[in-house]
Structures are given as structure tokens and as C-alpha cells.
Write a structure and sequence with these properties.
The chain has 147 residues and is mainly alpha-helical. Helix content is 50%, strand content 8%. It is built from five helices and three strands, in the order βββααααα. A three-stranded antiparallel β-sheet has the order 2-1-3, with no helix packed on it. Helix 3 packs across helix 4. Bound molecules: zinc ion.
């Protein structure tokens, strides 16, 4: 590059400060200003690391929150009747549907239907509502019917 003071081609320009202006100059023009020592470099990584670390923590926190929300959705928040899975099976059998039939109507895998009927997992709310609609039966715990 060229010396910003005199314009001669320089191989290894030196950064100097002249009256608040930083210039890259050749060795012959270095005397016109104050050479800027590469002091900020060791300080910079330290200053850089903290925000990066903070950002990483923030990203991790967001990820965890998302995970929790997904899990929550997956589990479902509706309170189901204690015998909800039995109700699914009985209603399905009353309609003379095979687990495959129900799976197709739910747009789910057969294994999901089998898991539901086995009470193996708490389906998402959307799936509970779909089941109730398809089977015309109530799967949620009815507070009025308690005791
Ligand atoms: Zn020069």
C-alpha cells in the first residue's frame, strides 16, 4: 500500500496518530506523528469475549425456554379423565374402527394410536380435541362429574 503521508509505496506501513488522525505511513514518515502501538489488541479480545459469552448464555436460555414450551405442548395441558385411554379404545371399537383407521383419521401413525390407547403418553391438546371430535366422546376430566 501507499504511505498516506507522502504516497510512496511501503511494504509494512506503520500506523501513526497525527493531531487525532490515524494514518498508515512508511517508516520515513513515522516521525511526523505518534506511533500507535498495538496495545489495544490484547485488550480487545477481553472486551470481545464478554459480549460473546453473554450472547451465548442468552441463546442457551432461549433454547431452553423453547424446549420447555415444546415439551409443554407435547404433553398437553388439558386434564384428562383417568380412563381417557380406555374411552378412546371403547369409542373406536364402537365405531368399528381399527387402530389404523383411527390413525389415518387423526393423520397420525398407528403407533401413536396404540400409545394413546395404552395410556402411554399424554397427547397434545390439539390431538385430544381431534380425538374427542372424531370419536364423539369426552376425554377430558369433567370437574362437574367429580366425587
Ligand atoms: Zn511517507
Amino acid at each position: 500500500m501507499r504511505c498516506e503521508m507522502c504516497g510512496t509505496e511501503v511494504e509494512a506501513p506503520v500506523r501513526i496518530r497525527i493531531e487525532g488522525t490515524v494514518l498508515s505511513v512508511g517508516p520515513e514518515c513515522e516521525k511526523f506523528g505518534t506511533r500507535i502501538e498495538p496495545v489495544p489488541t490484547p485488550a480487545d479480545p477481553g472486551r470481545m469475549n464478554r459480549p460473546v459469552g453473554a450472547a451465548a448464555t442468552r441463546v442457551g436460555g432461549t433454547g431452553r425456554r423453547l424446549e420447555e414450551r415444546d415439551l409443554y405442548t407435547e404433553i398437553g395441558e388439558l386434564e384428562l379423565a383417568p380412563d381417557w385411554s380406555k374411552r378412546v379404545r371403547l369409542a373406536r371399537e364402537a365405531l368399528a374402527w381399527t387402530p389404523d383407521d383411527l390413525a389415518k383419521k387423526l393423520n397420525e401413525k398407528r403407533s401413536v394410536v396404540l400409545k394413546i390407547e395404552g395410556g402411554g403418553f399424554h397427547p397434545p391438546d390439539a390431538l385430544v380435541r381431534k380425538l374427542e371430535r372424531l370419536l364423539k366422546t369426552r376425554l377430558r376430566a369433567d370437574p362437574a362429574a367429580g366425587a
